[in-house]
Amino acid sequence: MTLDLRGLFSTTLSKLGSIFAYASRRIYISAQEKRVTEWFKVSGDRTLRLNYDLDENSLVFDIGGYEGQWASDIFSMYCCTIHIFEPVVEFADKIERRFPRNKRIFVHKFGLLNRSQKASILLAQDGSSFFKQGKTNAEVTLVSAVDFMRENDIQNIDVMKINIEGGEYDLLDHLIDTGFVKHIKNIQVQFHDFVPNAEQRMIRIQQRLRQTHSLTYQYPFVWENWKLDGNVS
Questions:
Q1: What are the pLDDT digits (tens) for 118-165?
Q2: How far apart are CA 228 and CA 233, in angstroms?
Q3: Measured on CA atoms in the order 226, 83, 90, 49, is the torsion positive or negative?
Q4: Dihedral over Cα of 129, 100, 151, 206: its sign
Q5: How far is CA 89 from CA 70, 84, 117, 199, 204, in A?
Q6: What sign does the CA torsion over 171, 177, 179, 181 have?
């Protein structure tokens, strides 16, 4: 019997690759579980993400509305004006049906990013993203955030919530580069780590935000909030 060393070596490498991939995935899952566990300990979705100094005169942007739950919670507490941006038309239609008679909640069937364009997005419920690949995709419309502010005479925003599955990096750089970040009192953002160089990009954006804002809470790659410093003009 002849021993096929090449085949044996190839099989061994394949098995080792599978083991390494599984181990890496488990390490990632464990890290993410730890992050989320710390967030759940403080009931962050019911406390930190909702507790702001707002009233009926406040303006809130919900960028990445999905089902509209966060906007619903914010409105029920403060009765403020809310603009929801959801580029997946199916999701945006559901949000519209959720607030059919609410004249203070505006649903926009496009996303805000660094430039206006058409883009393909992977549909995966609240994990829908431009940075993931899959079989179910949809074409969506994106609009330059600062162009939208200018065209709609938006001068100041009290809270901007950003959860756009990887697009937050380009959007925040855009807001900082144009200087509009100085007109946003609170930035509530969820960074995502599946984007290339995610941690380095996150750290760089955080360093830039410190020039105008102060961190009020931070759970890395879960949620964090930046509040505009009082002396920024």
A1: 988 777 655 544 554 555 678 899 999 999 999 999 999 999 999 998
A2: 10
A3: positive
A4: negative
A5: 18, 12, 16, 31, 32
A6: positive
